[in-house]
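Weekly puzzle thread! Below is a chain. First person to post its structure in token form gets bragging rights.
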Amino acid sequence: MTGAGEIVAGEPRPIAGGQPRPAAGEPRPVVLDCDPGHDDALAILLALARPELRVLAVTTVAGNAPLERTTRNALRVLTFLGRSDVPVAAGAERPLLRAPWVPVEFHGESGLDGADLPEPAVPALGEDAIELTARVVREAAGLVTLVPTGPLTNIALFLRAHPRLAARIAAISLMGGSLGEGNTTAAAEFNLWADPEAAAIVFEAGIPILMSGLDVTHQALMRSADITRLEAAGGRTGRVFAGLLRFFAVHHRQRYGWDGPPIHDAVAVARLVEPGLVTSRRLRVDVETTGELTRGRTVADPEGLSGRPPNADVGVAIDRQRFVDLLVEAVAAFG
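Winning reply:
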């Protein structure tokens, strides 16, 4: 029996209200909800490359760029990878209650500066992200895992609009939050800061959550030598993604002095396919929505002082070398 705050290696067991995992040998159905974004692009690449996952759809949200650009970027990445068959739908263009803010210094004006990606081969669907998610969850043969790597607006709207479908969600593997430092304010990580009300809905939904926050994603660095290796391994795909990573690295070198960028969003995908990659803690996590200085803070309760059960498996460490290997292997698979 594990308790609040206990360290567990690998993908955690479903927590209270959890659902069983896919049968051995069967791919896990996933919906990627993203705001591309350099690290989102690598998350998409990794999800499509791995046989353990079956990508049912990609939905987009405003975050790293306005919605029109994040949707275009998702379509461009899928077109480049030859996977325009994956349906794409645009979702929320702003947070539930807050004014939107775009971190241009991280990802550039387009949201995906640094490489020459093709124009989309197909448009986004006419239905919106919430309805596409509901449709694929309803029609899927098994339980579906949601993988949000941007603000959680679409996921919150889906849960509010289709509460009965929550039982068909196996887990939510998200990139966001932090037990320690922030990257947008001193207290908060960008995705949860951007729409804290949506994040609070998600964390309170009773669905198993795998939280990959800054505590673990700031360890998931692609250093200069790793980018060179990725470029050499993947032909055309390696060259394009190396260009994206080198652009993304500039801000992190200037701000943190790091030799390479953290690939935040791909961690949320990687921990679904590689048991033991991420070490996590089972914790109660709540999202601050009212504090003037702490908007979007993920407040953990490691001692169980609230008496409320854990609702998230929070990543605290990662096998960085194996994570890099997974990204290199994914790029090489597309060539």
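Puzzle host: Confirmed. Bonus trivia for everyone else. The two ends are 45 Å apart (CA to CA).
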